[in-house]
Queue: 2 jobs
Job 1
Amino acid sequence: MTEQELLQAASAVGCEAGVCPFSAVADSLLPCRAASRLPQNAASVLVLLFPYRMQAQPPKNFSRYAAVNDYHTAAGAVLTRAAEALRLQDPDGVYEPFIDNSPIPEVQAAVAAGLGVRGDNGLLISDRFGSFVFIGCIVTDREVGAVAAKRRGCLHCGACRKACPTARLTDGGECLSAITQRKGELTDREIAVMRQVGTAWGCDLCQEVCPLNRTAVSAPHPCFTVYEDALTEASAESSDGKAYGWRGKGVLQRNLRLLKNSE
Ligand code: B12
Ligand code: SF4
Ligand code: SF4
């Protein structure tokens, strides 16, 4: 298997992709259940991008990433298809797909594969799509001599740090995205930040202000076929299988109630 053949398998499922050696991430693997699926002699990682920005305007009260159909399922199916095609081509090779629930630190892998840079907002910024991309990986035991391309860098303009409502990007505060996903009671301060931003799920502030996203193309991967513009009580009732539903409907209902009470 050559790097070119791996990239062709990604291109066949509509993804821009790159390859990095497994050694580029081996020292920073994340603890998660999916780690048990890692191939024993992992040698290379095929990293695939799934752009998801659909509309010029962001959704009204939640993050863009949750406005499309759940990427774990949609992009996960695309990754499974690509891995199956690779196994057909190379029956002795191991090809294991991962997305999000993954031992691979995906931003780091994508940078090592030459797909973009890590911005000061912590996210992968692709030259073409900006940061509104999901990252998926196929880990293989095949060695390929991958050479990462040189990329345009983060501008270090400070806009993301300035926009961050919890100082996560400056003083290590907790990300608002994590706060909106947390079960149980929120503190008065956390509720105030949620209301100030007006989000019932996730946070996009450090991406919306990034100048590199202004010039990025909006070309969502064809696996994203659904788009929601606002979260409502009805969304909470039918949140199974949605990126905003994985914590159960109670968390979203609580967030919507907190936003409503501030009107
Ligand atoms: C857990 C997780 C989260 C947690 C963060 C946990 C944490 N570490 O703080 C929460 C819920 C907050 C989160 C939020 C979001 N996430 Co998230 N998340 C992940 C996940 C599953 C693991 C990330 C991880 O733990 N990495 C390891 C740690 C060590 O890396 P790190 O957090 O980046 O930390 C590095 C730097 O930030 C820095 N650092 C760490 N602490 C501090 C503190 C300060 C002060 C500074 C300056 C630097 C710094 O050093 C670290 C080592 O390099 C990945 C998927 C994966 N398998 O990689 C997706 C992933 C990173 N998330 C993703 C997305 C889309 C988001 C959100 C945009 C969703 C949203 N709109 O709300 C936000 C963005 C927040 C942000 N600006 O980073 C995408 C990112 C795609 C991209 N373009 O990069 C990923 C890759 C999922 C995917 N499959 O596409 N996420
Ligand atoms: S807002 Fe500026 S500093 Fe932050 S990631 Fe974008 S270019 Fe880099
Ligand atoms: S997602 Fe929001 S809270 Fe999290 S780092 Fe970005 S701006 Fe800060």
Job 2
Amino acid sequence: MKLFHLPYSHHCAKVRITLLEKGIAHELPPLPGGSTRSPEFLAQNPLGKVPFIVDGDVALAESEVIVEYLEEAYPEPAMLPSGAAKRAHSRWLSRFHDLYFGKQLSTLYFALNDGRRDDPAMVAEVDELYRLTDVLEAAIEPAPFFFGETFGLADASFALSVLYLKMLTEAYGRPLPPERAPKLLAWFDAAGRRPSVAKVIADCQAALGGS
Ligand SMILES: N[C@@H](CCC(=O)N[C@@H](CS)C(=O)NCC(=O)O)C(=O)O
């Protein structure tokens, strides 16, 4: 299987962690033409976004679609919990990540890169990240992972993003107080001990210049 990715992308991280957790052999080829917007890459993936996988005849974009495909095509080890309610909650966490929490991280990340760190409007954006962190903290009961001892798709969704939560709140001068998210931080410690997560975090930090 081929995974086209960017090492600092939380969307890509969840796919790569899922591949590593499932033991699926994969390559990480360079982006054709060197970028997501090159004609060569757009010819394969007209959205021009990563992650993008090619698995034989199957070519897929959109991280959540990809990990659900991996869960069906490579069912062992299972990464969705058993039972309709838990599976729905796992999918809710993943959607909450993609549509709200991860999106807010991206807003803060791009503003920082654009030199808007001290723009007064960013205070409300950091407030919003904290509000979403509180929502997440209230929605989890790690034991040590979101659904007990089995690391799953919801865990894969947040693994890189909690690193970004710590990095970005610090970069904006409002570091995350440990007492604000004790369950999330305990979960992050446990997740970081997974070789899959440790590898993806190390590659992200290397891509960001060792930060
Ligand atoms: N909804 C998409 C989002 C993918 C996305 O935004 N990817 C970013 C990296 S995090 C990207 O490819 N950016 C490069 C570009 O837009 O040219 C998913 O879940 O896969």
